[in-house]
Design brief:
Jelly Rolls; 15 strands; 39% strand
Length: 242
Amino acid sequence: MVIFSDGFESGDFSAWTGTEGATLPSVESNIKHHGNYSMRCNPNIVDQEDVYKTGLAATAIMYERFYVYIDAGLPSVNDQEFDCGGIGKDDYQNAVFATLRRIGGNNYWGTVTWIANVPTRDYEAAASNPSADTWYCIEQVRDVTNGRSKLYVGGVLKVDVAKAHVGNSNMVFAGVDYVSYAGLDTYHDCVVVDSSYIGPEAAGGPTVKKGSSLVNTMTEMLNSKMLFSMANRYPKLSPRRF
């Protein structure tokens, strides 16, 4: 069941609890994954620039799926990194982060890799070396019931590690956090929070999960960009509440 979703189609951050950073994120239209808008994060100093949602229904197993696009500023020096999403209880101190990092040790020297930061860094099985100007589907899991943290990239499970989490999840964030270098410029879109696996969006529209009821499916569509685009294309059609 969808707990929260936002594709920034309102043109603002009204669906979120707040924004934070020395500079704040913006809603823009020039680069987006679906629909007309996405969120841009362009911190002008080593800092953070994100949106956060608190007060979610406390959930033992919480998934957060989002898309991220790096327009500029891939980590170029070993140990540079930034968090691009997180799930936690009450604050960031008890959270799971999806992080992009240039590795300065182990078998990944000099490579850029998605990691699950819990807060110890657990690397994916093989360095991914993501590229700029590409949308990546990132999905992370904070599993209190089974004591696990997971990270999916493009629908493929990359990290699955044991982690004894304290307290059910009730908050998420998206954007960039704990940026360790300057010059980063990213876009974020299609955020969905659920109690079960979400997966990548179907081509041209939102994810419709197998077994979803009509009400839940329509709710996902209303919170996504599909019906927004349809309304623009066919003005006489208007979404109805169920």
